UniProtKB/TrEMBL annotation:
Keyword Transmembrane helix tagged: yes
Superkingdom field: Bacteria
Coiled-coil annotated spans: none
Entries under InterPro entries matching the protein: Endo/exonu/phosph_ase_sf, Endo/exonuclease/phosphatase
Gene Ontology MF, one: endonuclease activity
Ranges that cross the membrane: 37-57, 63-85, 92-111
The protein's name: Endonuclease/exonuclease/phosphatase family metal-dependent hydrolase
Keyword terms of this UniProt record: Endonuclease, Hydrolase, Membrane, Nuclease, Transmembrane, Transmembrane helix
Length: 389
């Protein structure tokens, strides 16, 4: 106690100096903000948007909309920084320009720039594992709309909105299906097919009071040679957003219908952000900290700037981001220019390649095909191939 009393004057002096510094800095920033409110607000929005993308905050739907706005906020932040620079606000302008540059670390999620990569020395190409993910929209129901099932063949295939199809089933030895009755003639849901034995399985279809229960996940532990790998096929909450209806209403001059569709889209997006936050937590409970090498793939119903993508990148790597080429859009309907079907892997895998199969166009999604090599595998290529059917 006596020692504290001896140092008390110095502690109080230090606190006083700190408080004065904070007040002076705050007053200076406030005065500058009053002179240039719009540029300062723009840079503040850019800061928080980037912060959410780097470390997604769950629990509130508003963060989803904030993260989605990043492509619009970045050029606005650049314009604000340049404007402040010409107004001799060089310190804030420089900080803004640096933050704009940092944003490209997040923006790179939108573009695959690596292309096919070569395995590290010692990894045999015959040990490559091919994984397909595809929202097949129940496959063509018309006899005229046939498709070549061999184009969808892989070592492991994960389907969302799957309906039983003999052509697909005949290509694989093991499978998991979680289907729900879509109507009296069709069952729709999730399916995971494998050319390797499935030794364990989990899954959950989430209840949806206002529609068919087609969203959920299936998790399979697969005997991959002497190794066991964990593959998760996920279909997060579908929003049913049809933005083309709003565009059609605007083109037809029906302003009332346009705003109705606009607000309906907002409500669906809001509900989707809330539902997917909760669903992803359940999926993560099966994969984060797994002792097995992990592959997560499916229809996430969010862009790479969404909560699900940002949350998973904290523990996993995105296949297209590291080994894809171009934009890799996977939505085969309006607005087209989005990638909502993803594949994520744990650090146990080397990502050989990842591509969107845009030539397969009978669904409203395109398939995503990736190739992986298990880094620490104790199996020889011959042993792996012997386990395939």
């Amino acid at each position: 106690m006596a020692n504290f009393l001896n140092y008390k004057p110095y502690v109080l002096a230090g606190l006083s100096i700190t408080w004065k510094t904070i007040r002076t800095t705050g007053r200076l920033f406030y005065d500058k903000y009053r002179q240039f409110p719009l540029p300062y607000t723009t840079l503040s929005v850019l800061f928080f948007t980037m912060a959410f993308c780097y470390y997604p905050v769950d629990g509130h739907w508003l963060t989803g909309f904030v993260m989605m706005s990043l492509p619009l906020v970045i050029p606005c932040g650049l314009i604000a920084s340049v404007y402040l620079f010409f107004k001799q606000q060089k310190m804030i302008a420089t900080a803004g320009l640096i933050w704009v540059l940092f944003s490209f670390v997040v923006v790179k999620r939108l573009v695959g720039i690596s292309g096919s990569s070569r395995s590290p020395v010692g990894m045999n190409q015959t040990a490559t594992l091919k994984v397909l993910s595809f929202n097949s929209e129940t496959f063509p129901v018309s006899t005229d709309a046939k498709f070549d099932a061999s184009l969808l063949e892989a070592d492991i295939a994960c389907f969302q909105e799957y309906s039983p199809n003999a052509q697909i089933q005949n290509q694989y030895e093991a499978r998991i299906e979680k289907l729900t009755c879509f109507d009296k003639d069709r069952q729709v849901g999730l399916a995971l097919f494998s050319k390797y034995p499935i030794v364990n399985q989990y899954g959950h279809i989430w209840n949806r009071a206002e529609g068919p229960n087609i969203n959920g996940f299936v998790c399979a532990d697969i005997a991959y040679g002497p190794d066991t790998i964990r593959v998760v096929n996920v279909h997060l909450w579908s929003m049913g957003v049809r933005s083309d209806q709003a565009v059609d209403a605007l083109q037809a001059g029906n302003v009332g219908l346009f705003f109705y569709e606009l607000f309906d889209t907002f409500d669906r997006l809001k509900e989707g952000f809330e539902k997917r936050n909760d669903q992803l937590k359940e999926v993560e409970s099966y994969v984060v900290g797994s002792r097995y090498p992990v592959i997560i793939c499916g229809d996430f119903n969010e862009t790479p700037l969404g909560y699900s993508y940002g949350k998973l990148t904290q523990n996993f790597r995105n296949a297209f981001e590291e080994a894809g080429v171009g934009m890799g859009f996977t939505l085969n309907r309006y607005p087209y220019c989005v990638r909502i079907d993803q594949q994520f892997v744990s650090s146990d895998w080397h990502i050989e390649a990842c591509q969107t199969l845009s030539g397969i166009s009978f669904s409203d999604h395109f398939p995503v095909l990736a190739q992986y090599v298990l880094k620490t595998s104790s199996a020889t290529p011959t042993e792996r191939l012997a386990l395939r059917k």
